[in-house]
Each structure stands twice: as C-alpha cells, then as structure tokens.
Amino acid sequence: MTTFGLTTWGINRVGWAFGYNNYYNPYVTPSTVVVDNSVYDYSQPIIMAPGESTLSSDPLNAPPADVPEASLTTFDQARNDFYAGDYTAALKATDQALKESPNDAVMHEFRALTLFALGQYQESAATLYAVLSVGPGWDWTTMIGLYPQVDIYTEQLRKLEQFVTDNPDDNAGLLVLSYQYITAGHDQAAATELERLVALTPTDPVAIQLLLSVEPNAKIPDPPKELLPPQPTAKITKDQLKGSWSADRDGRGFAMDLKEDGTFAWTYSQGDQSQEVTGVWDVDDKGILAMEMNDDGVMLAQVLFKAGKLNFYMIGDTEGTPPLEFTKG
To answer: Phi-psi region for residue 148, left (φ > 0), alpha (ψ -120 to 50) or beta?
Structure first.
C-alpha cells in the first residue's frame, strides 16, 4: 500500500465512512423531508448498508444488490419524470424511493439535483452535504445523462449563478454552485467559489476538502489544527493487531477484524443501522495503522496499547475526538 503520505483531506473523508467522527450538517433547516409520515433527517449522516459504496462506474444503473425492487421501480419513475422536466413529480417519487432505501447515496444525490433544478438551493445543499460527507459525487457523464438536452441544464446553472451573484454570502448557493462546477470539470471556477465559501465557513471540513480537491495549494484562512495523539512507547507489530476487536462510544458500536491475510472488515453500527467497510490493512514501525478501503479511500490511525485496550486515534483529527478503545476477542 502507498498509504502513509496521504493528506488530511483523504483521511477526514474516510473518517465519516468509518463512523469515527461526530457529524454536523450546517445546511439543515427546520424544514424536513416527510415521506408518508416518516422523516429523513439530514442532520444525521448517511449510513450505507454493508457492502454498499458511493463509487461506481455507472452509479445510476448499477445499484447495490440489496436495494428493494419496489424502490428501484419508483426511482426509475423519478428519473423518467426528471428527464421529462417534471421536477416536482421527480422529487415526490425520489422521496418515495428513499422511504425503502434511506441510505442510498445515489438516490440522495439525485434528490439534490432535483432540488437544484427546482431552484430550492438550501434543501439541495443540505442533501448534498450529507452525500459529500461519505464520498465524492458523480462525474459529468452521469449527471448530464439525466437531461434530454444540455441547454436545459445550462439554463438551470445560469439561474443558480445569478442567485449567487445576488446573494454572495449565501452558503447554500455557494456549495451547490461549487458542486456543479466540480461535476462539470470546471475546477478553477469551483475553486473561486469554494474560496469564498471557506472564508465564510472556515471550520467546515467538507468545504475545506472540496477546495483542496480542486486547488491543493489553496490557503485556508484559519485552518483547524491537527491534534497529535500520544505515541507508543514500544513497536507495535502486525501479530499484535491481528484478530477481532470491538469498541463502543456514545451509543455506537465498532467491530474491527484485522485478518492474517492482510484484509480487514470494519463494521460501524448505531441503533438498527450498520455500515461495513472492507479492504486491506498494514501497520508501520511507528504504530500507524492503515486501512485501505476497496474504493481506494484510506483510514490512517495511531494505535497504542493502554491498560489492556487498543487505543485508536484517527490521524488528521482536528476536533479532539476521544480515541476508540478496542478490546480484543
């Protein structure tokens, strides 16, 4: 693995997927998404089902195998409505599909696009933030394929650009516009808008991550300081780490299985929801554990033994999050 020189951006993004960090969506408003008397709460992260990934060469047409057939049928109808320009119907159908598949990141991203098409930028930003917290968004080919003509998308983009011009300090408009520029491959235009967004929200990790993804040398006005974890007093070996570990924190459960063949499985659960991450792992002579996900994201953590437990600190943490205290067996 070539994992030990990764940036904080990559690590922090993966931290959401592992359930390590606390989650905050700054774009959530008192309005909620109501689907047949149930509510999707975007103040909570999207917890993907075991084996599900936000990454796919064809995310709209290659859903995870465990998505209910009824949900896929309703989502197909949503896409047909969108293609026909009936965005209100598309939004309604998407909300119905999400009732059966509430943690499907592709459906949420489509929902954000529908809200963009409707000019509802605040709700679009709240949805996008949840999606971008667990992984990167679509590419241009995927998104523009939802429209019958490029001109229709262009007209919607121009309306958003005018909104941002008229409301230069509107965080939601800036986030949605930056996302659109990144998706279309206009990195420099995205960097300009993201610099403004980061200046307005200097501690928002998603805004910072997006800016650094298009402008790696961008200057962050007041970058959060990485809190360095304690260092191990003795070398930690792979043999010491192999095996099954479990931890609990704030009502959340974590299971880490570091297998002898160099693969791992990490399960994060909260309530009746769970998320599994798999991939390969290694540890260096300084006790830095690297877990490389199957979609190429990487979690780096400083690990050390203390009082019979394995303390696990995510590298790049700027929030002072207490370590996960794993117990073996």
So the answer is: alpha
According to DSSP, the residues that pair with 39 across neighbouring strands are: 34
Question: What tens digit of pLDDT does each residue of 150-190 get?
Answer: 999 999 999 999 999 999 999 999 999 999 999 999 999 99
Residues of the chain with CATH 2.40.128.50: 238-328
CATH number of 238-328: 2.40.128.50
Nearest Cα residue to 184 out of 156, 221, 164: 156
Contact 291, 279 (CB under 8 A): yes
Question: Per-residue pLDDT tens for 309-326?
Answer: 999 998 877 777 889 999
Handedness of CA 40, 44, 50, 54 (dihedral sign): positive
Domain with CATH 1.25.40.10 in the chain: 12-214
Comparing CA positions, the residue from 18, 21, 17, 11 lying closest to residue 300 is: 11
Q: What does the alpha-carbon distance between residue 74 and residue 313 come to, in Å, rounded to a whole number?
A: 42
DSSP state of 220: P
DSSP 113-137: HHHHHHT-HHHHHHHHHHHHTTS--
Q: Which CATH class, in words, describes the domain spanning 12-214?
A: mainly alpha
